[in-house]
Design goal:
single chain; alpha+beta; Aminopeptidase; Cathepsin B, Chain A; 2 domains; 8-stranded mixed β-sheet; 7-stranded mixed β-sheet; 11 helices; about 25% strand
């Protein structure tokens, strides 16, 4: 019988964990957290009062991706098809949560697990050296749980932001690298872009990067681009309380807009719907979108992501933030599938619902002529 695990199952889960794994075991504390965590489920296989195996899943809030965090079958019940049964149940549970894909890591030296997942149609897409506690490498796999969807993905190299306030530079770096492979992704560039594009410099806090500063940084590096904003207000000002800081941000933004007005940069007033965003993408543009992180992380802060693809149901994006505190790894932030409607809800920030999109193109590839914002 398969059922959802509860805190009463902790002893049985730990017993299986200790029998099945020599390293990288899930601790009692971690199991307790995951069993009470809203974005995780643990399924047990139980027979005659004995727990024979389990599978633990993590779900990305606001997106449609599942991660198989751990799967184990007690050695006394091996070779009975329980691994297949648990995996099929995990996929079914993920589909019930509208997940479009499942990802996981497997030890390179675990032939039985490799055979299980390959047999069920999982495709290896990355190798991670020195991943486990004993320095064994991991192989990362993914399976499309909705294979009928035809995803149009562009190859965007991934870069993880290294500081809490550098999502904008990290997103811009990924888009630039996709258009120009000669761009080197490193912390020097990340911080250089942040210094150029941040709206405020104060010892009491770090500033975020709005659309105009990021646009200027991209233009200086030879990229064509469009800016789409839905209003005239100062971007990211909702995250600042100090009137002095608000005034500094207003003056910096005014200066940027004035500089942009003298450049061949297309500035548009209005927001882009999913269909318009997709047309820009199909024309060779790489979109950077300002979102509210609340729908993904449960906290209200402005955040930049890079759109990497579309299908009829989902928008795919690279998120430069990897929330390690919640057990996330880089895999959880790459090509995240987000339903169209959910993406439209998250693609705004602050009380005023500010929207901002940058579309980067290779030099000379932008399809529309530049246009100025009305004065």
């Amino acid at each position: 019988m398969l059922r959802h695990a509860t805190l009463d199952d902790l002893p049985a889960l730990l017993a299986i964990e200790n029998r099945c794994f020599d390293t990288d075991r899930i601790s009692r504390r971690s199991f307790r957290h995951l069993l009470t965590h809203g974005n995780a489920i643990t399924l047990l296989d139980e027979c005659d009062g004995q727990t024979r195996g389990y599978v633990l899943l993590l779900f990305s809030q606001g997106t449609s991706m599942a991660r198989l965090y751990s799967i184990a079958v007690h050695p006394n019940h091996a070779r009975r098809g329980l691994g297949d049964r648990l995996l099929e149940a995990a996929e079914a549970a993920s589909v019930e949560r509208d997940c479009v894909s499942m990802r996981l890591e497997i030890r390179r030296d675990n032939p039985s697990s490799l055979s299980l997942f390959r047999r069920h149609g999982y495709r290896q897409f990355k190798e991670v050296l020195d991943y486990y506690e004993d320095h064994m490498d991991a192989l990362r796999f993914e399976k499309r749980l909705a294979p009928h969807l035809q995803t149009d993905l562009v190859k965007v190299p991934y870069y993880r932001q290294t500081l809490d306030f550098t999502c904008g530079p990290a997103a811009l770096m990924m888009a630039m690298k996709a258009l120009d492979p000669s761009v080197e992704l490193d912390r020097k560039l990340e911080l250089r872009l942040w210094r150029e594009a941040t709206t405020i410099f104060m010892t009491s806090g770090h500033g975020g990067c709005g659309p105009y500063g990021l646009a200027l940084s991209a233009h200086r590096r030879g990229f064509d681009l469009e800016i789409h904003v839905n209003e005239d207000g100062v971007f990211l000002v909702d995250s600042v309380r100090s009137l002095e800081k608000k005034e500094v941000m207003r003056l910096v933004q005014e200066d940027w807009i004035e500089e942009l007005s003298q450049l061949p940069v297309a500035l548009y007033r209005g927001s882009l719907g999913v269909d318009e965003l997709r047309r820009k993408f199909e024309a060779g543009g790489i979109p950077l979108v300002l979102i509210s992180s609340y729908r993904i992380y449960g906290e209200r802060f402005p955040h930049w992501v890079v759109v990497t693809g579309f299908d009829d149901h989902y928008i795919y994006m690279h998120d430069p933030l990897v929330d390690s505190a919640k057990g996330e790894i880089v895999t959880d932030s790459i090509n995240l599938p987000v339903p169209h409607r959910e993406f439209q809800r998250m693609a705004r920030y602050g009380k005023a619902g500010q929207k901002a999109v940058l579309i980067l193109y290779r030099s000379g590839d932008r399809p529309e002529p530049p246009a100025a914002l009305p004065s």
